[in-house]
Structure formats: C-alpha cells, structure tokens
Amino acid sequence: MSHVEEPDYKLVAKHGNIEIRDYAPMILAEVEASGERKQAISNGFKILADYIFGNNTSKTKMDMTKPVSNELSEKMAMTAPVIQEKHLDKWKVRFVMPKKYSFETLPKPNSKDVVLIPLPARRFAVIRFSGLADNEAIKLNKDKLEAYIADQKLKPIGGTVLAFYNPPWTIPFLRRNEVMIELDSTVDSNSLETHP
C-alpha cells in the first residue's frame, strides 16, 4: 500500500511528531461495528472492502495486486488510511473515497450497512507513531496529543479518531499510525510554534 492515495491536507504547524492539519473536503464510506476494537476494525474492514471490490450498484471493482483488464466496469482505487472512531458502544470504521469521485458519482453500496458521508474541510491535531497500535500505545499517544492541545489552548470539538496506514503484515517499526482530534478551526493557530 505504498502507492496508495491519501487525503489532501495542508500542514498548519508541526511540533515533533504532532501536527496541526487542515484537511480538504472528502467523502467517507462508513460502517458501524461493535465489539473489541481489533475485532471491530476487522469486521468493518471486510464490509467496506466488499463495497470497494464491487458490491455496489455499478459493480465498480478494484484488484489490489493487478489491474482488472477483462471487466467493463472501472477500477476504484484503494485509499489510506483506514479510520476508526468509537461512538457509544460501537466503532465507526471508515475508508476515505478516491478524490476522483464526487458524492453523486460514487457507486452506491449494495449493503445497507455501508453509508457514504460527505465531509467539509476540517482541522485536526494529529500525533503520528510507529509500532503496534495496541490499546496501550493508543492511550499513551492520545494523552500526549490532549496535553499538547491543552498547552496550546486549542479547542477540541470532536472525539478521538484512529488512523492506520498499513496492512497487518507490515513490520511494526515501519507502520504508520495516527491519533487525531478535530479542532475548532476558527481558533487562531498563528501562535503555534513549528519545530522539526
């Protein structure tokens, strides 16, 4: 998944492995899954993968290892990251849809469990880390990100979002994981320091 499309964003500020990013509008495919986090993301991933691999009204498909050359339908590109967010007792698992599609041109899911959601431009505080994204690593990085947000007097307006960029067979130290928290973009960010 090294040449996989990612959402567009503008870097506003950087402090070590923490960034403030302004994301462009995007469309998400979302499914709700219950249970323990890893099982929920696995179940949600399967349902969303089924959608992008052709379980949609136009049978639009994507083959992860080679182009589909004998199909009349176009290929839909896979995007990164896979996004997960807890909502009450359920997890929302999301794929960012390829930028070439608008909400009107995206193939409609056959599964009632898959919902397409257009999102406006938004600002996020993001902390990036490698290794296994187990509950301990997620909590540690979430705490660091929340401390940074408080220290910078930024205003969080959303819950915690987890983003995973690599397939499960990726060597842990090469993995890219992120914890993201949406911010009020009307709060002035010109005072934020940028450090490498």
Automatic annotation (TrEMBL):
Entry-linked InterPro entries: Reg_factor_effector_dom_sf (IPR011256), SOUL_heme-bd (IPR006917)
Domain of life the protein comes from: Bacteria
Any Pfam family hit: SOUL
Protein name in the entry: Heme-binding protein
